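User: I'm designing a mutation panel for Aquaporin Z and want to avoid disrupting the core. Could you give me a predicted structure to guide residue selection? Please restate the sequence first so the numbering is unambiguous.

Assistant: Good idea. Sequence first, for numbering, then the predicted structure tokens:
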Amino acid sequence: MKKLFAEFFGTYWLVFGGCGSALFAAGFPELGIGFAGVALAFGLTVVAMAYAVGHISGGHFNPAVSFGLWAGGKFPIKDLIPYIIAQCIGAIAAAGTLYTIASGKAGFAIDNTKAGAFASNGFGAFSPDGYSLQAAFITEFVLTMFFLLIILGATDKFANSNFCGIAIGLTLTVIHLVSIPITNTSVNPARSLSQAVFTGGEPLAQVWLFWAAPILGAIAAGFIYKNLLQQHGEPDKIVL
């Protein structure tokens, strides 16, 4: 249960901090943090929770990460569904908190006919810059695949684990810098579901892509790392 609570709180903080920055601070008049600020917010939430509770649960905070670690032989299949449920509940709870806070401003309403409403993900007319379903799928697949390759490499027994949280957080920052204009960045099915639940409409109808593409990309990364990259003997010495 401690592992599941760690995943709940870790995912809650990721969605609250990342999506909260997008909702409240990204476009604030004159002082808005913009895309770069939102990207950094997502990265920092992962860094913080990786060091806070990563030692308890492994610090997944993302169903795609759980699938990728399973495919890479680093996570037991019996824990897959419980982790995903805890992550989704944490994400939806965070989205509910954000909705409650946003409702405290006069005139607040979610316009689910616009791209990025309530920090939701989308493609086509619901992509921030009008990218197609195909473009969105490729983006989410490739970025999640590399995200998992970096996670698997940074947490490998031969890697310097003291800095793995920083490497993972910076990677998530870069991912957002690339893909916010394309899909509003998912690479995390729980994060996509949580915002879509409160947005409804077409963003909720499109959420399937933000489960399928990240999970498939993560599974591909797990198999690639396990079969092509993972070091089984003593690591090669680095000559400077």
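For picking mutation sites, this is relevant: The chain has a mean pLDDT of 93. The CA atoms of residues 3 and 57 lie 4 Å apart.
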